[in-house]
Amino acid sequence: GVWGDGKYVYLANNDLGLQTYSVSNTGTLTLIDTDDQGGHALGVWGDGKYVYLANYDLGLQTYSVSNTGVLTLIDTDNQGGLAFGVWGDGKYVYLANYDLGLQTYSVSNTGILTLIDTDDQGGSARGVWGDGKYVYLANNDLGLQTYSVSNTGILTFIDADDQGGHAYGVWGDGKYVYLANGGLGIQTYLVNDTGILTLIDTDDQGGYALGAWGDGKYVYLANDSLGLQTYSIDKAYEYDKANQYNIFTGNVGIGDITPDFGLEVSASSTNGYFAISGGADGSGDGDYFVVDGNGNVGIATSTPARKLEILENSSVPQMRLTNSAGNYSEFEVDSLGDLTVILTGDDILFEDSNIWICEGSACQAGISLGNNGNLVVENDIFIAGNLALGDSYSTTTLAFTGFSSVGTTSTDITGLKSSYPVIEKMRIYINNDIATSSDNVNFRLSFYEKDTKTEDLLIKDFYFGLAYTEVATEWATSSLYGTCDNTDGFLKYDQLYLMGASGYTEFARATSVTTTDAMAFSQLTKTHPVDVGISKVVEFTNSFRLYDDDGTKEIHLKLENLSAFTASTPANITLILEIQ
User: Quick check: helix, strand or coil at residue 456?
Assistant: First the structure.
């Protein structure tokens, strides 16, 4: 027996075991390796991972093959009897056992064989092959046999056809099954949908047929006395009705004597096509429906340039898609090639998709979209009416309480529109009187992908200092200048949060800060008496996008003070986020 995998050719040598050959571009053979475990090698087949040897005396053997073609025996399973032929379908391996009939094996990832089932209808099994639906056994004494195989590898005998002689080898091309019959030559069979065999033709040129194989065009017969024989099968069947009707399958062929379908139309000319034509005058002129030699379909055109082309040159849409009576969408291409979409509904939806509008045949490279639902326009957008953006900004205020010694407070923000929120602006400051003249503490604000907030999930973090002091002399309404207990940590142009009296809080902008504990600021609208707290507001205005890996539409963040407060009263921190 011989078989190849596209890289090497494997020979079952009766006396020397399994042999590996390489084949040059000119067809020259070079022996690479030989492995002889004893017995007599008769049949060989492989599945792309392992090579299987039917060893007459030792049963079924599994081999691995290195990249250089070296053979390594993995496993042997001998259930008795004499192993003649082997074949597999990618799931199971089938052994033609001369004495025990047909056997099914499973093969582990490591190449270990496990017998699943054996079916012996008598006679002597010699060759085996399958077409993905049925498995065929060449039985020396009983002819050709058909089996089905369950998902678990259990064999069920379906049919047998014995025309006499001695069945040795079997092969098929997906359409017919060919039997090498030692006394009758080569035989052609048709198999129906239930696995029943019908003999079509027999050709015996003498000698003794041992094996059959084909390449899709010809079938080759190994003849013990006459060598190698080649067969064509164009006329292997009997037809009536001018070779248009296959009496075995019921298929109708026009221009094809071997139709595979209920109706098959074939043209020998490259311009040939299948067409349904008609005319108002009954002449048959006009192409209503055409399938050309390239497989292109034309409606109202005999020369379709694409897989589907519809021709309509009047001012009506070429195609309509209908859901129910009165509800449809139509597509019209005018004489300039412009497309108009006409809807009875209101919307055109692109679900879970992006829309790209690009100049030329390709879009600009380097654009990365984090999710679907985007519109990418390479050049300009012209808007005649108003532009309404679906994602408006929302403001969220968070309170972090109880900061004194070094510590961490975590939280989540829920109720977002998506799992990809954009932070446009942040403001953070101390919002309570911490009973001290001044304090200056370092913080870290961190954003994470999940609510576990571990550092391997960090998206972005910010480091900053929060300064606090108190009013030294009253800052009156309309004031532009005042003193405080300490200006350490404050800078010109800082925004200030003034805690006021009786809840009269406001924000002001420092226009100057001196080392003598004085500040100038924008005009005040409220009065702030002595010992009222002043907090530095830290602002971040560079936008950034977050990613919620949980898919819960949340922002996961935590605030850490990296140095301790000197104040006796714990500080409460306010964080204001502007989110899109």
Answer: helix
